[in-house]
Write a structure and sequence with these properties.
With 258 residues, the chain is an all-alpha fold. The protein contains 11 helices and no strands.
Length: 258
């Protein structure tokens, strides 16, 4: 929300700070009620349908749920931009596989030439695919990581290391596989600039704390690995920075220096 304080464009949407001059603007609470969300959806449908009409299209959208529309069918599976991009490149994902295994009956109900339910032939639903193995996960993540700069094989294995540890420790391998793929894909695309910023900030703090280059590099990699698999990366980054600030302050107050 506009709090009246001047900020550079790149600072406006950063995390808010106690001093408005050092952080972004606070989020407004006016958008939280469910009523606002429903009104926004209705307005979006109205504007989108008007645009479709003006463009000469017959298609229309409806913001209401399938139940409210009186449509008796299961909802489709939302892939999201990261999974959709991986599927287009031929990278198999559990979410894409579930969409591909959707019963033919559900597809027929949406088709304008679908026959009546009582005249359909019985539909056989294939057995669920087995969960991905560790080797399959490693191969998939390496394929995504190698979309980046041409570097040594050791570099790519270091990039996927936190995700492989997360996958090996997870009980639900299919869900963990999807999580690792989506995160790795975002690391190489949308999240790449932010991860570089975090890496530089952590490196700067570690240099202030002293120690050998090898020690600093090891701590930096450990912090980045923690941030990569954290549910909320910004919160994890803030925790890491806070911990380093406390450690640096303690070392200065005790006169330990390097």
């Amino acid at each position: 929300m506009n709090d009246g304080h001047f900020r550079e464009p790149d600072l406006w949407f950063k995390r808010a700070a106690k001093d408005p001059a050092n952080g972004g603007a606070k989020k407004t609470k006016e958008l939280h009620p469910r009523e606002w969300l429903l009104q926004c959806r209705e307005l979006w449908a109205e504007r989108a349908n008007l645009a479709l009409q003006q463009a000469g299209h017959d298609a229309r959208i409806d913001h209401r749920t399938l139940e409210a529309q009186g449509i008796n069918r299961a909802p489709t599976i939302h892939l999201g931009p990261s999974v959709a991009a991986m599927e287009r490149k031929g990278i198999r994902t559990p979410r894409g596989s579930r969409l591909a295994r959707a019963p033919v009956v559900a597809q027929a109900e949406k088709h304008p030439l679908a026959v009546a339910p009582e005249t359909r032939e019985p539909v056989s639903i294939p057995e669920p695919a087995p969960p991905p193995t560790t080797d399959e996960c490693r191969a998939s993540l390496l394929a995504i990581a190698k979309q980046g700069p041409l570097m040594m094989e050791q570099f790519y294995h270091k990039q996927i290391k936190p995700y492989m540890e997360y996958f090996d420790q997870s009980e639900d391998k299919a869900a963990a596989f999807a999580f690792c793929q989506e995160r790795m894909q975002s690391d190489m695309t949308t999240e790449a600039p932010r991860l570089k910023e975090m890496s530089r900030a952590i490196s700067d703090q570690l240099r202030c704390m002293g120690g050998t280059m090898a020690q600093q590099g090891e701590l930096q990699q450990e912090a980045l690995d923690h941030i990569r698999i954290a549910p909320n990366r910004e919160e994890a980054f803030a925790e890491v920075v806070k911990g380093l600030d406390i450690a640096l302050e303690l070392s200065r107050s005790r006169g330990l220096g390097r």
